[in-house]
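DATA SHEET
Item: assembly model
Revision: 1
Owner: S.N.
Input lines:
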Amino acid sequence: MRILETQEVTRAFGGVVAVNQVNFNVEKGLVNGLIGPNGAGKTTLFNQITGMDVPTSGKIMFDGKDITGLPAWKISRLGIARTFQNIRLYNDLTVVENVMMGLHSKVGADPFHGRFIQAVKSYFQAGKENRELYVRALEWLDFFDLSHLKDEYARNLPYGNQRELEIARALAADPKILFLDEPAAGMNPAETAHLMKIIEMIRDKGITVVLIEHDMKLVMNICDNITVLSFGQKIAEGTPEEIRSNPLVIEAYLGKEDEE
Amino acid sequence: MTTLIQYLQYLLNGITLGAIYALIALGYTMVYGILKFINFAHGDILMVGAYAGLFIFTFLLGESTNAAWMLIAFFIAMLLSMAFCALLGMFIERVAYKPLRNANRLAPLLSAIGVSFILSNGAAWLFGAQSRRFPYPFDDTPISIAGLAITPHQILTVLVSVIMMVVLTVFVNKTRMGKAMRATSLDQSTSELMGIDVNKVISLTFAIGSALAAVGGILAAFDFRVYASMGTMTGLKAFVAAVIGGIGNIQGAMLGGLLLGILESIGAPLFGIPSALRDTIAFAALIIILLVKPDGILGKNEREKV
């Protein structure tokens, strides 16, 4: 079942068309891969979907709703979470506080739209609410084996752990879809293997995963289906086996053989 | 000869003045904390607050000389003036700053200076150039305690400022909205991904800062009267106070305001500075702090990471 699809989404920066009429389909409960050479428009497409940027044209449908052009905070509240190629944590907060921030949108009413009575109530229960958040944040840290680092500042964590923390924080918001932008970048083989396990665990929790990744071993091993972008256009879509043998994909990555 | 009692008196006056600076400095520092932008129109908001407070107060008072009603009317006027300035602050942000949020950093700064001119010249045009006295809501005969003369309006000033600062501290640290505000000041785009409506947080920041400026304006009006350009020097000094305390830091603004008030009050007699040059103290303090600890007393040293 399709949980999210982009319909003819285009994003042009002046004369450069970074994403060109892309129909990208995300299947529910699966790990969906999005690959392509550098500059293919993968991150740009992520940005359109997560509300960091607005498409020049086209539509983005999520769970039957049109979410094109909604601000990022609304999209996040609808259940779409993401991580970044360059990690974006609250560096000056501790590990557990970062995860608590992820829980922010989930617990209690929207701080601005809640009813007045609720706002007053939540004020008097702030201490209790914080304790609850803390306990739940620790559960997420347990899931990632990060509990022993809970009081460390995020900026002091090793790179691999920072990536895991970013994923933990995204998951804390209880998303329906998790977008991972090159999660294995800069990881050593042991860390990548651990990441692969984590992604499988996330999928087994019933959360749909969308993965941008250059590590082909990871992609081919873990993705249920793969979409390939090249120069802003979708050139292929299918299972890992189909993608592996697709001549267009090979050409995009390795270039065309010169014909004598 | 200046005696200890006299210095204690200066200290007392300094605390009162410092409380006012602190209230106004909070607006500068909160906006800077979130937008990294200095709202140069903030000083003129305090002028608008003082005018609004004055007009509402005299309107409510009418011919009445009832002591209790005078005090009640004063607080009603203060609350209404706060509400008015909060709306004005949000309106200014929406119209003059928000459209420039992604522009060059200089653009909103210039826009703020423009807004500042519009407000102060608009007030001069509407209300005339003469200054007005802000009537005391009570008999302001000084009370003598151990040789110190304390006026009731000084007590009111310190009391109101302390209440405002306690409420603000609780709000920022304990409520979900306060948490959203702190998160936004740490990292705007990440906070948006956490489901925080950053535009609302920014509006709220302007509303709170402007409401506090309204209180500061009314309290300052007791000593400095109400006039169209009253916000310029007081606003500038509150800004200096925010920088001294560490701009972007709420506790820093409170501390910086208090220190600057005390320094101005005690510094003149202590260093033998003629009272006409009293204003130079604040700016000398600014230069010194910028040379010695550019991030301010409570500011964190944030170097760009490579």
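QC remark: Residues 108-115 of chain A have pLDDT under 50 and may be disordered.
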